[in-house]
Design goal:
Layout (H helix, E strand, L loop, with lengths): L1 H7 L4 E2 L6 E2 L2 H9 L14 E2 L6 E2 L2 H11 L12
Antiparallel strand pairs: 1-2, 3-4
Length: 82
Amino acid sequence: SKHRRTHTGEKPFRCFRCGKSFNVSSNLYRHQRGHGEAAPEKPRGVPYRCEECGKSFGRNKELAAHRRLHAGEPPFRCGDCG
């Protein structure tokens, strides 16, 4: 999560022009405008990484489902029976 990255120092969003990294995509977007781009490139970071195996995900809920596999649980839960 964004908050977690403030503690870890992780900066997964990188400017393709100069290589500078940011911890949130909105800061990268603002930075890219400074390069004079009319429409800055969308960030390509995958900020959600499994600490156990290193696999990365674009959404936190995808990482949560993946972590359940490591725990031996089904990756998704049925809304009716749990």
